[in-house]
Design a protein that fits this description.
By secondary structure, this protein is an alpha+beta fold. The chain contains three helices and six strands; from the N terminus they run ααββαββββ. It starts with a helix and ends with a strand.
Length: 126
């Protein structure tokens, strides 16, 4: 993996999130991918579980804006990136702002086989 490949993958991931496009989002992942949604959550395995969690999360989000900065490729071919997002949560009238780190492993076809994220967030009135 190169930083350009990681950047391309993150672009696709971000567009899918912003568009709440579960088909495009799932297309970023290998069929048996591992997705650790947060540091305390049990990792999800496979596209079905990932899709379900994505759709549940994005159902409450509006006006999603995602950004990223690829930082490094490790010797064992894992990409490290900084990311940030802002979104409106209509149910409570707040704006949520999160940022964190992604750890991404891609297969030869450019699909993610293992994804881990760490993040911090805050909410403020819209």
């Amino acid at each position: 993996m190169t930083l350009d490949e990681l950047d391309d993958w993150l672009d696709t991931y971000g567009r899918a999130w912003e568009g709440k496009d579960s088909d495009a989002f799932i297309g970023c992942f290998a069929p048996d991918a591992l997705y650790a949604w947060g540091p305390w959550d049990e990792p999800l395995r496979g596209r079905g579980a990932i899709r379900e969690r994505f759709e549940r999360a994005t159902a409450r989000q509006e006006a999603v804006r995602f950004g990223h900065e690829p930082l490094a490729i490790t010797p064992n071919e894992r990409g490290i990136a900084r990311w940030w997002v802002s979104m409106t949560i209509p149910a409570d009238g707040t704006v949520e702002e999160d940022e964190g780190i992604f750890l991404v492993s891609l297969d030869a076809d450019g699909r993610c086989t293992e994804f881990r994220e760490w993040w911090n967030g805050r909410s403020r009135p819209a």
